[in-house]
Structure formats: C-alpha cells, structure tokens
Design goal:
Length: 476
C-alpha cells in the first residue's frame, strides 16, 4: 500500500472519472487525494462521487482525503443579443447594470460591487486575459473602458479585476449551501476560491464548525500582498495559477510560486501547486516536455502536493495522467539533487518543544540506521512538523481519528494509519513497531523512531522521542 514517493497527488473527479472502477484505477496509479469541484455537478453527483471514494477507501484500507473546491464569487459578463461580439483596439466599450442583452458597445455585469470598486486607470481582463480594457470613466451604473487588446467577447465570459480588492464575501449564497452540504456529507478539506483577506477564511471556518480543514486558494494579487496573515488563518494553501496567472504578469508567477511554497513549509502547512500541470494530456496520451519539467519544478521547490484538474476530470486519459505524475515524482525523489535542494531550503526558526523533538527526529534519521519515523498525533500538528523537516526515511502518522488521518494524507511524506487509543508509552512503542513491520517499513531487528507525548491523548503534548527495535521472532 505504501507509495514510492513522498509528494502527494490530487486528482479532480469529473465525467471522465465518475464511476468506482475509474476512481479505483486513479488510486492504483497514484492518486492520494480526490478533488470535487462545486462549479460542476449538482449535489446528487457530488454525493455519488463521495460514496464511491469512501467505498474504495474501505476496500484498500488506507485513508483517502476528499477536497471540495467551492465555486467562489466569479465575476462574469451578461449575454449578447448575437451571442458574441468582436472588440477592436481603441474602441470604447461599457459595462453596466442594464440586464438586456449586450451589443458591440456594451454588456451587463450582474455584480454591483464592481461599479463602486473600479477607478479610472484600472485594468479589466475578460476571458482569461485574452481581452484587456482600461477604465476611462466610472458612474453609478456603468464603467466606460477603452479596449487595449481586442478579441471576441461572448456570453458569460469571466472578468478579472487585478487592480482592486472587491468588497465581496469569499462565499456566495451557493457556496454557503454547498459548504453545509459537503460538511454534512463528510469531507476533509474545503478550498475557498478568490480569497482576498484573512476574514474570508474565518467566515468559512465559522460555517464549517470544525467539520473540515480550510484551504485558501491564492488567485488574486491582493492575497499575495497579505499572504502571511492568510497563511496564519488557513490550514493549507493552494497556489491556483489559473486566475493568478491572468491577474499578474505571467513572468512574475514562477518566483511567486517559489516564495509561497517556502512560506508554507516554514509554517508547517501543506501547499498544493495547481492548474495546467499536464494540460496537454486532456487530449494526448503523453505530456509535453515543458509540462513534465513544470511538475518536477514544483516538487523540487518542496510542494506537498501537485494537482490534476481537467486532465483527470474531463480528459481522455485520466489514469495515464495520474500515472505520469506519479512517475515524475518517483524520478525526482530518486535524484540526489532533490535531497540537496530540499535540505538546503529548510527553515531555521524553531520555537517549541515539539519543534525541537521533530528536528531531533530528522537529525537522528540522517545519522543512525533507522527505517521510519512513527509519530502519534491527535490534531495532526506533530505530523505536520515532521513533514516540514522532509526526513529521508518514511514517515508513519498514527492517530485514533479517521478525520485527522484523512486530512494528513495531503501532507508530504505522510503514510497515515488509524490506530487504537494508547494509554501509555509502552503501548505506543508496541503499536509503532507492529505498524512499521506490518506496513513493510521495517523488518525484525531493524529500528524505528517513535514520537509521542505525555500525558497521552492530549493534543500538542509531543515531548518524547525514542528509538526502538522491531522485535525478532522468539526462538523455539
């Protein structure tokens, strides 16, 4: 059951991967986390996918995480009388509150907050940035723009506003309904779209009431400007390069990705790199060389997980896409340069006893002949600290809670197991060595590192580290 790599793979489910057989194949190919996108599919469809994942989880005996991606307040234009229009460079085009179908000179925007937020000189981007306009004049019910880069604009195309922070809540009415539905269903991670400030995360956390961990999708330049406070408020981060690449200069995206990954790792919070990782595999059985290099780069940078979107949701080769990503990860992690880069990028700040214990575990793993580090955790904090250290040996996460085991599945290197409650350290040692042997991380006579806390079953009490032998069978 164990993977031959530490970075995790997130696969989005959709029409191409709806049934249990294909989901099983995705898991076998390497998928660790399954993403359900609330922008596509009704509640009945989401429920069916959820049930299939849980059935497979039971069959394979390994925790599987479900990440639900909320749609968020995506701004779109209205419809056109002719279905579409061609905008030419230099012409004047208006967006307004008039809901009648648009024409060559105007179209409706159904989000009133746009009109109060925009100022002359601001940029408006339409259809993933293919059309660029500059605001000339703003009235109470219209925005007049000059077309800087023209093209075809059609019904309900997306609009991005990179220069402003919109006074919009991160959760629409649909998002609130979806959030409550999936939390009651039983999911592990909630991804919030178009996060602009920490308050967006706190609103979702209040509604989730502990039923799911909160992941902030970084898609807006405003989120980058206050990233540290967003990171503090969230449980995890997704570097969502689609809208982010539209709203900022595309050449700025790689250094931003690298900085965000390093900050997440320093904070011991999982980070996913997403969008267009193997995009050509939507229609092709093999990726481009550039895509393979992009996936590998995210791994070398230290990302916890990489994600497939359309490739596994609507593409012709969903299983091959996961298998390709898995093969890239195995190849990267067997490269000696990978360890050099990962170890050179460790964050030096340590502030707690748990920090010291997990740092010591990693240093022991680098100097002694041990086969795995086994950490007992109630909240997942200890396991995330171990994951941050990126140990050279396998990491076994042991928890009595299936919710924590599933959430931790997203973290780099975490091989998660649901175990019985332990009452003392002797039980913990026996449990750890039995699990390490049973999961084939060690053999009789070999040693493992054990992390735990006294008093037991108290979150945040990690204060013990021990090296223990896997016992050899007694001789008759």
């Amino acid at each position: 059951m164990k993977r031959e790599r530490s970075v995790k793979i997130v696969a989005t489910l959709g029409p191409a991967s709806d049934n249990a057989e294909v989901i099983q194949e995705l898991f076998d190919a390497g998928a660790d986390v399954f993403r359900l996108n609330m922008s596509h599919g009704d509640h009945a469809t989401v429920r069916a996918r959820h049930q299939n994942i849980r059935k497979i989880e039971k069959a394979v005996g390994r925790p599987l995480a479900i990440l639900v991606d909320l749609q968020g307040p995506k701004i779109r234009c209205g419809t056109f009388a002719n279905g579409s229009e061609i905008l030419t460079n230099g012409q004047i085009f208006r967006f307004d509150k008039d809901a009648t179908p648009g024409d060559h000179s105007r179209v409706h925007i159904p989000v009133n907050e746009v009109f109060s937020a925009l100022k002359p000189g601001a940029t408006m981007l339409v259809d993933d940035g293919r059309i660029r306009l500059e605001v000339d004049e703003v009235g109470e019910d219209f925005v007049s723009c000059r077309v800087m880069e023209g093209g075809r604009i059609s019904d309900r195309k997306g609009i991005n506003l990179p220069d402003v922070v919109l006074p919009l809540a991160a959760l629409s009415k649909k998002d609130r309904t979806d959030l409550d539905f999936v939390c009651e269903l039983g999911i592990d991670w909630l991804a919030l779209s178009f996060v602009q400030r920490p308050a967006d995360i706190m609103e979702a956390r209040d509604l989730a009431r502990g039923r799911a961990a909160i992941m902030a999708k970084i898609e807006k330049p405003a989120a980058i400007e206050c990233f540290d406070t967003i990171l503090e408020a969230a449980d995890g981060i997704m570097v969502a390069r689609g809208d982010l690449g539209v709203e900022m200069q595309v050449h700025e995206l790689p250094p931003v990705q690298k900085r965000l990954i390093r900050r997440c790792r320093a904070a011991a919070k999982p980070v996913i790199v997403a969008t267009q990782m193997l995009e050509s595999m939507v229609a092709s059985p093999v990726p481009t060389r550039a895509e393979v290099s992009d996936v590998a780069t995210a791994m070398y940078e230290g990302a916890d997980a990489v994600m497939l979107s359309a490739e596994s949701a609507v593409g012709k080769f969903p299983v091959a896409s996961v298998r390709t990503m898995n093969n890239v990860a195995v190849s990267v992690e067997h490269d000696p340069t990978y360890r050099q880069i990962i170890e050179a990028s460790r964050h030096g700040t340590r502030q707690s006893v748990a920090d010291a214990i997990t740092l010591a575990a990693r240093e022991i793993a680098e100097t002694a002949d041990v086969k795995a580090v086994c950490c007992f955790t109630h909240s997942g904090t200890t396991a995330r600290l171990v994951s941050r250290e990126r140990p050279r040996i396998p990491m076994v996460v042991m928890t009595p809670f299936d919710t924590i085991a599933r959430r931790m599945t997203l973290s780099w290197g975490a091989h998660c197991m649901v175990t019985a409650l332990v009452q003392n350290f002797d039980e913990a040692v026996a449990n750890a060595v039995a699990t390490a042997e049973g999961e084939e991380f060690g053999k009789p006579g070999e040693r493992v590192i054990i992390l735990a806390g006294v008093p037991f079953n108290v979150p945040g009490s990690t204060n013990i580290i021990r090296i223990a032998d896997i016992p050899c069978p007694a001789k008759e």
